[in-house]
């Protein structure tokens, strides 16, 4: 009962903050921003020229990030297409009951989640390249939108225990894609840019929160001495060197996702 009340309070608070943000647009006068023209198409972008802006440095940084993401994505693609078979390298989502028994209700392989992460990495690379070619603007949003869509899929996979079985999920994702695309297409600057940025940040922060939540719950479960989760790396490799473990134990491996998602926000 207390948990449900907490969820209700959190939802009301979130809607209150969202309402305050929306109202702020009607009370604050934004300075006039003259958007830069895209050098390829000549369309107005979603940013102006600020002091010290260097297009060459900006393009170089975007290209560098895209190349790094592409290399990482291709390595990840090889791994998810040929998943490991050794028990110490196989990871799963474990859904644990909320009652006092703390028993495992279900376990689902994380292969779908891992493939989503790889897809997310590759699409992020494509999005970065598109940002260099088209610059960040209305035309770019048609590609950047799918970057956010993969974030939603990752959140849904986490929330559903690692497997999407409800068709309504895909219907809502289609509604999301059409709605965001429509608002970005038919809204004028800077409303389109602000809307796309805010809705994207919602997913970015949600990923950080979800990964932190999984880390805390997994760590607490292990610290409490529960034995429902499978053995971690140390249990499988007692006689091997601790300097080069095959895997990290359960909660520590999630730290990488927390760091990556946090860096992505900024």
Automatic annotation (TrEMBL):
Source taxon at top rank: Eukaryota
Keyword list, A-Z: Membrane, Transmembrane, Transmembrane helix
Keyword Transmembrane part of the UniProt annotation: yes
Transmembrane parts of this sequence: 7-30, 61-81, 117-134, 140-158, 170-189
UniProt protein name: 10476_t:CDS:1
